Amino acid sequence: MAIYAIISNGIVQNKVLADAAEDLSSFPEVCPISDDALVDIGWTFSDGVFTAPPPAPVDPATAALDIRTQRNRLLTMRVDPIVMNALRWADLTAEQQEEVATYRSALLDITDQAGFPTNITWPEVPAFAR
To answer: Are 107 and 72 contained in the same domain?
Structure first.
């Protein structure tokens, strides 16, 4: 058994598992795919080489929403449980409190980065909060 790409007009239309290429003789073009190859539907095939399609353009509004959602999740999961709990906050050293405050500010300011929303640098989580 082997995996074969079904190709039409130079584009992979499907992938199938078959005993031999002869079993797929009803298709116009068939090419075996090696077990370690990352080939998928929509890839091009030319001169025996599979090529991934170019990445879809990034919609800035969608990217901004994704970044804000991830930022909010980090605030909710990593920062708020420390900052909003007086006992946990009191257990931190002054240095750790400053690290959390700096991390929180950096998360909140992520939308102010020059590359936002397509090229940002995430702040590093304080080591004790990982």
So the answer is: yes
